[in-house]
Amino acid sequence: MTTGHLSLHSLPPLSPRVILKAPLPKHNSTSGARRRIITPPCIVCSNRGQSQSQSRSRSRSRSPDDYHATLKALNSKGRTPRKSLGQHYMLNNDINEQLASAANVEEGDVVLEIGPGTGSLTNVLINSGAIVLAIEKDPHMAAIVSERFASTDRLKVLKEDCVKCHIRSHMLSFLGSIKSLNHSKSRYAKVVSNIPFNISTDVVKLLLPMGDIFSEVVLLLQEETAVRFVESSLRTSEYRPINIFVNFYSDPEYKLKVPRTYFFPQPNVSDFCPIYADKYFQRRQCIFFSWNKL
């Protein structure tokens, strides 16, 4: 069985202005034929009338984590996003910058990233001076991000399921090794992740009780999930046991919405950002960015 490569023109458009007006992907399926996603072509590649000098200038100005780089990284391993793993890759590097900024990531910080994917957020964290421990369940994506940052000693990749592995022991060991090398003076680590959305509740349950390890937590979540964590109260029908858990360990609030068109493939839900402050251990912030149905 062979894995088909993604076509350049199967990606969303490059400009955010075009993204907001782009139609939703159309799904065509016939008996005996594979289902494929049709989306508008990349506006960089569709500008056939532009001069070669303009084309070269546009190429030089591309972000190292734009649509083309994501496509190239996936094709290098013959991969397509796996729905079963909740894989949606961020295509707007400005959002990655905001995630890192929300956690106040700076030189020498130790950061846990769950689900690094092709390494777009990882790149921002490393460029900010952080030392990153990345946990990736998909071995193919773990290989991609490991190869991309093979020349730096600021990244360690664990090929494990973050829900099943012992995050506490991994982090304590990682913090100990970093301190022994005098690479970090901080006693605490931070979490900055665009996590797979099908495990968001599980990840929150794992991280919130670890206020003795993490000083700040920034996560990208579905809007429905974040609203449920932040706005539900005893007087609403959406109130669940998870709300008791979240409010016991933190004071949550959300801040930022992110268009779903900034992801590949586009999810079917929306996004925003809450902040958690730990009540019992070191002060901790946890920010959830979520998709906006634009």
UniProtKB/TrEMBL annotation:
Top-rank taxon: Eukaryota
Annotated positions binding S-adenosyl-L-methionine: 88, 90, 115, 136, 161, 194
Alphabetized GO MF terms: RNA binding; rRNA (adenine-N6,N6-)-dimethyltransferase activity
InterPro entries (UniProt xref): KsgA/Erm (IPR001737), rRNA_Ade_Mease_Trfase_CS (IPR020596), rRNA_Ade_methylase_Trfase_N (IPR020598)
Domain spans labelled Ribosomal RNA adenine methylase transferase N-terminal: 95-276
Classification via SMART domains: rADc
Region of interest (Disordered), residue spans: 43-66
Name of the featured protein: rRNA adenine N(6)-methyltransferase
Native species: Carya illinoinensis (Pecan)
